[in-house]
Structure formats: structure tokens, C-alpha cells
């Protein structure tokens, strides 16, 4: 059990899909974060799409997704 | 191996770092300036510092060597083994630490659980950092001796003097701002090597074709997901459970040298942004340290020792001038690791040990002086103790293994501490102590329990599970904390909705 033998039936392809699914799930959770919280510390008048940390996070996750999709 | 221009670049780099670091002395007048840069730094500097301090000179060679042996799956550590954990840290943990005005992670554990948990966590980190310092000095000096031909003590004394001076006077501001330059140098040197190596091998497609046709052991060199029955240390099950769910979180959320940087941010947005920016930069690290090893498989096949891949590539590929830049990058990696260890250990000692146990109500100048003296003492201990590594060649690995015992239990108490208000001081304390004990037990008996080469990922996962269950069980059997005591320490949806407008 400690060696995860019970997961040995899962193919590499399926495992890759699990990883990709995890990135999508994290992306979904990031989108649930309220905008005010993502902007906390920035004055209301200075809030723009480019300093929305949710978009930054989704950008990071998108790069990660592409890396795992390619390899 | 080095031409005149290369020596010039390396020496100019070292002098430049010293002058730049000393410039920041003028910004330090309180202990908050020294340990938290007066909470004034921008996200981009902190983000770059996080990335560069995470990679040492030994990692450059070690990761290339692993990539030579195992292929791109080594990149998991900087990709899935960093990005999700950094986002979790940015959005959940860092706002609590930053708003609480904390200096150290053990300080959070002390407020959430009890002072004993704080002390155990702090002493463990101090021991790890202090031991690591000497080993790091020696291992890096040996590396520079092989690569540059520099005498071992020349490397140690040069690094110790330069880093010691700017860290002693400039505190974390000097550490972070020199890291910014060090990161740029690392990226330029590393990318130059990768670009020229790829060009030499005929491009990416040619590389893939050559490597995958070199024999059965190279067919999965471009598969990031390794089967669960792989004999390499990176089966996908270990990567998912041990690395993604436990080790990366413990490292990005529980590591003082990482989190302390984010606490220097000028406001909460900059604190969160620094970690997210670092997560984007982090994804480029495998290009710098992994790809040279991978390309070496095609250019220099049949190396007996994978760790020779990077030095051999530098020798084969880089022209004079760029060789110097690459060695400046080695120094940058070494210096950024040493300055992080010094400043973080000084913070842990001053804030978690000296202030609560030795001298409680001293004035701020006193704690500033203690921080500086601790930095100096650590540096001297690091230099004097460094030759011990020569007597015990497995010491570097042993120290990293020692730290992996700590990761699972640490993350279990951090996770439950922030997400579950029912967790009690006794739950946290027992989970930390017995969790570490369980990890040690698994490591000692690993040949009976595990089938893969080096099961540190599995040990992290199972020690996390053990500590998690123990924490929950003991917490349910003991008296819960008062609501007031948990104020600002346990996650609540209010933190996301009641933000300052």
C-alpha cells in the first residue's frame, strides 16, 4: 500500500489527464476568489485588469498546463 | 578553462555585488528594516529573490545530472512541485502572515498552537540552516575548484566575505536587491548555454530524435509523467501525492527563507503578487538547469557520472566571455543561497529564541544588534565547519533527508492550523513530534516498505497523513481554543469578503 501499488493499473496517459484536470480545478478555484480580495492593497482608482492577481495566477496555470500537455 | 575575459567578468561580478549590497546599509536603522526591509519592497524584487534563492550552485550541476539520467521528469519539482503551492501560499497563507505583522513561520505556529510548537519548529529550521551553511560552502567550493581551478579556501573566503559584509550591514534589503541582479545573471548565463547547445544539436526536433533513438533507457526521457512502477525516484504517484500535495506546500508555505521575503512587501497586494510572479519565473528554471543535462545526452553520450554533464557542456559549447558569465551565474546561485540562510537564521534566532527566552523587553537597537551578531557568528561557524563535509561525503544528502522528515508533519499542522479552528495546541504538538518520529522510522526501514530507489516523496506523503490523522484525533480529545485566541489565525471567508476598500 505504501508504494501505491493500488494505482498501478492507471496508465501514464490517464495519469497525465489527472494532472491536467488538477490544473483546471485549481484555475476554477482561483476564479472563485472575490475580485476585491485579489486587489487588496491597491486603491480602487488604480484597479485595472493588469493588476488583477487572479489573471496572473490563471496565466501561470495556463503555462503549466501547456508544459504538461506537451510533455 | 577560463580566458582573461572570463576572469574579468567573474571578478567584476563579485566586486559589483559587494558594492551593491553595501549600498543598502543606509536603509537599515531598526530591526524591522533588518529583518523585513521596513515592509517596503515591491513584488518584482521579492519574486525574483524567491526564485534565485531557491536554487544553489550545487543544484545547477545536480539537476543537470539528474536530467541526464532521468530526463524531463526532473522538471516536475519546479513545475507542478512549485506553482500550485505558490498560488495556495499567495491567496491563503501569506495574507494571514502579512496582516499579522509576523516575522517568522514558527511565530504563526506559536500563536496558533503554543510556544513549544514555535520553539521546536524554529530550532529545527535553525539547525537545518546552520548545518546546511557549512555543507553548502564546502560543496560549492569543491565544485568551483573542479570547474574554475580556484583553491577551495579562496572560494569559501571570497563568498563568505562578500556575502557576510552585505548581509551583516544591509540585512534582508541587501539580500533581496542583490538577488535581483543575481537572478538576471543566472538567467542570461543559463539561457545562453541552452540556446547555443540547442543550436549545436540541430534544434529541438533533432534533440528529441537523437535522444529517444539512443536505446530503451532513453525512450521515456521526454515523458514528464513516469509510470507508478518506475524505478526512478519520480513515479507519478510520488510526484502527485508526495511532491504536489505535501513537499511543495511545506516548502513554499513553511520555509522561513521563502516566506520571510514576502513579508517584506510594501502592502498585501505586493506580498501576494510577489509569490504569483515568482511562480511564473519558476517555470523557466528547468530550462536553465534541466535542458543542458538533457541536451548533453545527445552531445556527450555515455558519461559515467551525470553530474559531469553541465561542466562538460560549458567546456564544449560556450565561447570565452560567456564561460565567465556562466561562472558568475554559479557564484550568483551560491551567494543567493548563503545570504538567505544567514538572514533567515538570524531572524529565527532573534525573534523565536532570543526575544522570548533570553531578553524579552530590550529596545529595538538591541535586537538589531543581536540579528547582526547572529549573522556574523553563523558565518564564522559555517566557514569553520565547512571542512567537516570533506570527512563525511554523504552529509549534503543526509541534511536534505533530515529536512524531508520535517516537511510532512509541518505541512499537516500548518494546513489544519489555518483551515480547522478545532485543532488544539496538543494536536499540533503531538503531530509535529510523532510525525517527525514516524518519518524517521519510515526512512530507517525504507528497504522493507518501499520498492523505489529513493522513496523520499512517499515518506513525505505518509508522514503527512500520519501527522494529519494524529492532529485531528488528539484535537478532538482535547479542549478547543477560545474563539478570541483564534482571531486572525484561522481561515474564514470573511478575510476574502471584508477587505479594505
- Please tally the β strands of chain A and state the result: 0
Mean pLDDT of chain A: 91
Major sheet attributes of chain B? none
What's the number of domains of chain B? Answer: 1
- Say which CATH homologous superfamily of chain B is assigned: Sodium/glucose cotransporter
Q: How are helices and strands ordered from N to C of chain A? A: HHH
The geometry of chain A reads as elongated
CATH topology grouping of chain B: Sodium/glucose cotransporter
Write the CATH architecture name of chain B: Up-down Bundle
Helical fraction of chain A equals 55-70%
| Structure summary, number of beta strands of chain B | 0
Q: Which percent range fits the helix content of chain B? A: over 70%
User: Which percent range describes the beta-strand content of chain A?
Assistant: under 5%
- State which percent range the strand residues of chain B make up: under 5%
Structure description:
The complex is a heterodimer of chains A (71) and B (501). Chain A has 71 residues and is mainly α. Chain A has one domain. In chain A, 62% of the residues lie in helices and 0% in strands. Chain A has three helices and no strands. Chain A has helices at residues 12-32, 35-39, 53-70. In chain A, helix 1 (12-32) packs antiparallel against helix 3. The relative contact order of chain A is 0.14. Chain B is mainly α and 501 residues long. Chain B has a single domain (4-390), classed as Up-down Bundle (Sodium/glucose cotransporter), CATH 1.20.1730. Helices cover 74% and strands 0% of the residues of chain B. Chain B has helices at residues 4-23, 31-36, 43-53, 57-70, 83-99, 105-112, 115-148, 152-201, 204-212, 236-254, 256-262, 268-282, 285-289, 291-299, 309-317, 322-358, 364-385, 388-391, 395-419, 425-444, 446-449, 456-477, 493-497. In chain B, helix 5 runs parallel beside helix 10 (236-254), helix 8 (152-201) packs across helix 14 (291-299) and helix 14 packs across helix 15 (309-317). The radius of gyration of chain B is 22 Å and the shape is globular. The interface between A and B is large, with 38 and 51 residues.
Amino acid at each position: 500500500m505504501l508504494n501505491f501499488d493500488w494505482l498501478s493499473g492507471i496508465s501514464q496517459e490517464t495519469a497525465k489527464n489527472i494532472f491536467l484536470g488538477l490544473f483546471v480545478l485549481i484555475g476554477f478555484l482561483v476564479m472563485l476568489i472575490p475580485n476585491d480580495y485579489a486587489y487588496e492593497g491597491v486603491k480602487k482608482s488604480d484597479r485595472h485588469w493588469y493588476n488583477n492577481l487572479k489573471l496572473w495566477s490563471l496565466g501561470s496555470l495556463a503555462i503549466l498546463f501547456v508544459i504538461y500537455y506537451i510533455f | 578553462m577560463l580566458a582573461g575575459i572570463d576572469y574579468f567578468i567573474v571578478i567584476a561580478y563579485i566586486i559589483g555585488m559587494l558594492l551593491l549590497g553595501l549600498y543598502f546599509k543606509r536603509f537599515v536603522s531598526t530591526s524591522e528594516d533588518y529583518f523585513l526591509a521596513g515592509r517596503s519592497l515591491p513584488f518584482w524584487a521579492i519574486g525574483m529573490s524567491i526564485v534565485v534563492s531557491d536554487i544553489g550552485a550545487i543544484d545547477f550541476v545536480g539537476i543537470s545530472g539528474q536530467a541526464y539520467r532521468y530526463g524531463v521528469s526532473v522538471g516536475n519539482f519546479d513545475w507542478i512541485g512549485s506553482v500550485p503551492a505558490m498560488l495556495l501560499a499567495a491567496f491563503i497563507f501569506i495574507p494571514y502572515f502579512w496582516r499579522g505583522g509576523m516575522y517568522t513561520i514558527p511565530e504563526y505556529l506559536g500563536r496558533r498552537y503554543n510556544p513549544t510548537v514555535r520553539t521546536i519548529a524554529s530550532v529545527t529550521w535553525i539547525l537545518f540552516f546552520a548545518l546546511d551553511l557549512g555543507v553548502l560552502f564546502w560543496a560549492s567550493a569543491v565544485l568551483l575548484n573542479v570547474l574554475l581551478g580556484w583553491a577551495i579556501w579562496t572560494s569559501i573566503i571570497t563568498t563568505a566575505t562578500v556575502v557576510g559584509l552585505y548581509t551583516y550591514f544591509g540585512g534582508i534589503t541587501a539580500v533581496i536587491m542583490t538577488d535581483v541582479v543575481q537572478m538576471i545573471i543566472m538567467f542570461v548565463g543559463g539561457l545562453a548555454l541552452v540556446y547555443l547547445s540547442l543550436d549545436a544539436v540541430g534544434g529541438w526536433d533533432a534533440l528529441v530524435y537523437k535522444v529517444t533513438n539512443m536505446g530503451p533507457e532513453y525512450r521515456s526521457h521526454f515523458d514528464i509523467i513516469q509510470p507508478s512502477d518506475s524505478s526512478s525516484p519520480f513515479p507519478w504517484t510520488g510526484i502527485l501525492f508526495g511532491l504536489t500535495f505535501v513537499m511543495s506546500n511545506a516548502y513554499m508555505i513553511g520555509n522561513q527563507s521563502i516566506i520571510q521575503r514576502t513579508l517584506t512587501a510594501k502592502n498585501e497586494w505586493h506580498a501576494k503578487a510577489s509569490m504569483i510572479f515568482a511562480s511564473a519565473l519558476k517555470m523557466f528554471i528547468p530550462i536553465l538547469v534541466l535542458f543542458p543535462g538533457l541536451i548533453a545526452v545527445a552531445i556527450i553520450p555515455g558519461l559515467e557520472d551525470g553530474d559531469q554533464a553541465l561542466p562538460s557542456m560549458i567546456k564544449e559549447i560556450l565561447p570565452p566571455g560567456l564561460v565567465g558569465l556562466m561562472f558568475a551565474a554559479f557564484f550568483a546561485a551560491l551567494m543567493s543561497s548563503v545570504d538567505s540562510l544567514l538572514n533567515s537564521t538570524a531572524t529565527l534566532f532573534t525573534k523565536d529564541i532570543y526575544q522570548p527566552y533570553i531578553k524579552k523587553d530590550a529596545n529595538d537597537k538591541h535586537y538589531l544588534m543581536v540579528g547582526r551578531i547572529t549573522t556574523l557568528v553563523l558565518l564564522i561557524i559555517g566557514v569553520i565547519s565547512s571542512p567537516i563535509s570533506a570527512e563525511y561525503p554523504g552529509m549534503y544528502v543526509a541534511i536534505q533527508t533530515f529536512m524531508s522528515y520535517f516537511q510532512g508533519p509541518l505541512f499537516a499542522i500548518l494546513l489544519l492550523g489555518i483551515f480547522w479552528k478545532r485543532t488544539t495546541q496538543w494536536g499540533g504538538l503531538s503531530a509535529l513530534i510523532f510525525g517527525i518520529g514516524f518519518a524517521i522510522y519510515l526512512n530507517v526501514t525504507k528497504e522493507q516498505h518501499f520498492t523505489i530507489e529513493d522513496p523520499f516523496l512517499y515518506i513525505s506523503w505518509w508522514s503527512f497523513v500520519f501527522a494529519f490523522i494524529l492532529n485531528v484525533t488528539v484535537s478532538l480529545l482535547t479542549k478547543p481554543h477560545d474563539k478570541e485566541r483564534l482571531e486572525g489565525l484561522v481561515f474564514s471567508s470573511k478575510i476574502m469578503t471584508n477587505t479594505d476598500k
